[in-house]
Structure formats: C-alpha cells, structure tokens
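Final report, closing paragraph on structural work. Over the funding period we assembled a curated collection of sequence-structure pairs, and we close with a single example.
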Amino acid sequence: MSRNFDSIDEALEIETDAKTVSREIIRQAKREVKKPLTTDILESDKTHTRNTVYELIQLGSDAAYEMLDIARETQKARDFEVVGQLLKAVGDLSDKLLDNQKKIKDIEAEVSSSSNVTNNTTNALFVGTTAELQKLLKQSSKETKKWKLSKSF
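Its predicted structure, as stored:
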C-alpha cells in the first residue's frame, strides 16, 4: 500500500513511521459522547477546585510574607509594589473561591432540577392568571343571577 508521504520521504531522504489513519477511526473519535454530570463527578470536581484554590491562597500568602520581609530589608519601592500585587492576587483568589461556591450551587440546582423533571398538577380547579380567574368568576356570577331571575318568573 502506498503512503501519501513517500515522495516527501524520498525528497528529504528520510524514513518515517507515519501510519495512515482511516477516516472511520477519526469519525468514531468525534462521536465520543460526553458523560452527563452526576453527583459523584460534581462532588469530586468541587473538592478538587476548592483544594486547589485553598492551596493557591496559602501559597500566595506565604509568598507575600516572604516578599514583605525582603521589601523591609531592601526598602525598595519596587519590592513593596510586588507585595501589593501579591496581596491583590490573594484577594482575587479569595473572591474566586466565593464565586466558585455560587457556581457550584447553581450547577447543583440545575442537576437536581433536571433529574426531577416531572411536574404533575393534581386536583387543579383552575389553571391561569388571577385576571382570567376574576373574569371567569364575574361571568359565572352574571350567569347565576340570570338563571335565578328566569326561575323566579
């Protein structure tokens, strides 16, 4: 079987181990189905994200303390500027931790609502807006009055 790269190999005087990949294998790889979010996956991602952010906050705090000691020793403005940037980065990470908590709650609510899709209404006497209900009641009371009047005569 002839390879597409034979002419290139000959021109460069090299031998390659290039394998021809069938189009069917590529199609199968593209068809890979994403797994739906489950509570186990969500819980492990939540734990991993939280631990990573905690570690980054701790590492940033340690770096800020070390840089503050260096800045005090050297008394250079640039060193104090770096300390300020480190403190800002640690503050941003703290905000990100809170944002992650909100995102996690939103995702958990979405997952739980998607699993409880059934919405059954039982014993519903009227389904509609309050304005529609008022119109229905007025119409019903007018019909009742007409009926009573016709019965009395």
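Residues 77-115 form the longest helix (39 residues). The chain has a mean pLDDT of 78. We thank the funder for supporting this effort.
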